[in-house]
Fold:
Amino acid sequence: MKIDLPSIQDQHRLIFEEATREAVAQLQANLEAPRLPAQDLVDESLYPRAHLLREHEGWEAPDPVVVKAYFRHFQDLFPDYGTDAKLAQLLGLKSAGADRRIRAFKDGSKKPPYGVWRRFLVMTGRAPQEVIRVLGFLA
Structure:
């Protein structure tokens, strides 16, 4: 008995295509996310807005007051992420003590890294999802 299988390259391409279709479906679903009330814990006009920019546009880490307000507002709206440990997991922080890192971001003893902060902004509809152009299939 002979079983014809696609080449590894063809298999890779099929996986890539399916993952891309799933990503497009998620982007479309994101447009239907509910509109929720804005945070009112801090007057954001008192702080720079560079934390909303992309890295190449001059991004700067947010002021800890803004971090604390954004995180508290989010956790109030989404009780499933009401603990710092659960918020850390959602943001992709997997190390032991990730909840302490969230608290350090809130109290200003550590600045949130760009990737973690950007992920939070995207999840909360404050920044668009970045889509990276594929230049070619090299595998």
Notes: The first helix runs from residue 8 to 30. Helices lie at 8-30, 64-77, 84-90, 98-107, 114-123. The domain at 44-123 is CATH 1.10.260 (434 Repressor (Amino-terminal Domain)).
